[in-house]
Amino acid sequence: MICLTLSDSTLESAAKRVKENRDYIDICELRLDYLDESEQRKAACFPAMVDIPVILTFRRPQDGGKCGFSEKIRRAMMVSALEGDFKYVDIEEDVKRSEVEDKAREKGVRIIRSLHDFEKVPEDIFSKLYHLSEKGDIAKIAVTPRSFQDVFTLFRVEEELKGVDKIVIGMGDYGVCTRILYKKLGSMLTFASSDEVAPGQISAEQLKLEYRADQVNERTAIYGIIGNPVLHSASPMLHNRGFKGINFNAIYVPFLVDNVRSFFMFAEYVKMRGFSVTVPFKVDVLSYLGNVTREVKQIGSCNTVVRVPGMWKGINTDYYGFIKPIVNDIENGRIKNALVIGAGGASHAIVWALRNYGVKVTILNRTLSRAETIARINLCDYDSIENAGKYSGAVDLIVQTTSVGLYPDVDQNPIEGFKFTGSEIVYDIIYKPKMTKLLQEAEKAGCQLHFGSQMLLEQGKLQFEAFTGYHYPHWVDSGL
Ligand code: ATR
Question: Most exposed: 39, 78, 157, 474, by fewest CB within 10 Å?
């Protein structure tokens, strides 16, 4: 079930939000501690105002809530609210036998026994959960993973406590994947927020429509992307839409990772079939691969990992995504020589791709030694970025691979003042914003432009093929 947490100040606005999100949710949680005091006293009316089951929750500050009353009053108000037709009531694990519990049992309201930890994942989490469930209640833990290893621990809950009714949630950025894959954790529900969401938090609409999180079952294959940061990635949208388009029982999830080793252990555990790799792990993953393609070997970085019998195989679709939009112009002779700005990981794949197609390349970089390293491996020239002006009118293609101009520093251009003649093809691999400062200036001069979003889309489509064995469905809007 997808559960919408209601943190409104009035019952009416809470009911309105349920209505707005109705297509995406199965259940909601009324947070009494967010309601105005006069509304708190009327909470018993709420279940009749909505057409889905409601959880009654009145959180204390130590559990992340805002209830300002004494414990005695809090419980009395919960008892009074239970006059309404709530299906569940949340009672914190340290609240011993209470009138709230008695009232709930008398009325057949199911008790959720909850434990919160905003700092960490407690060590003995399996036995804690078991104790919470002892009286036949639903055991709930909302804890805070501080590493990917902690996330892995949460995924093991289902195997350790099969058959126990439970709700398992990893909070914070590391926990995002547990909210999406809640069914794989054996969690009976996941909590969604509505409208305005903070980074990493997922709306009910996204959970239901983009991820189809509630459709996950035992046979659903897990794919994903590892990175740090990773939660902003557009890849989940592209792949999940593709899976849906070809009716493929799979889900693609962003995994914030701090350590590649713990991720590979996790990937084995949940029998992942493949995943994308982004900054800063494109080199780190190499030591875990049993087989790599020629591109990976020569570029020295891998952005796609797939399972093949007995091992993980690394491929690199970045180079292909980059070259696809310009390959015709290379093959028809329009592009013979290129200026590549930057000498980081992305630059390396791009220089290799261009050299692989016989284009003459000059690499410009702020740090000359990095340009020299890539130039030496790929047999090309290099120069300091300060000398960019020297190449005006002498190249057919200019590729921008640095992070200069990337959101939010959209006013920056790594080759400020460069004189475009208008005959160059200018390609910026930044995709946010689509129109970088450099591209704006190139467009003014009449240059033909290529965008980072094209590269992203093409590398993603090729990845999709590697993951599923099918072409990316042409009738699907990838969102890019
Ligand atoms: P990626 O893997 O995305 O290519 P990277 O390996 O960190 O990232 O490389 C970043 C590139 O952007 C490098 O070429 C870097 O130049 P240096 O090698 O001199 O560091 C370039 N870059 C980043 N900030 C820059 C700036 N303010 N001015 C010029 N170049 C910059």
Answer: 474
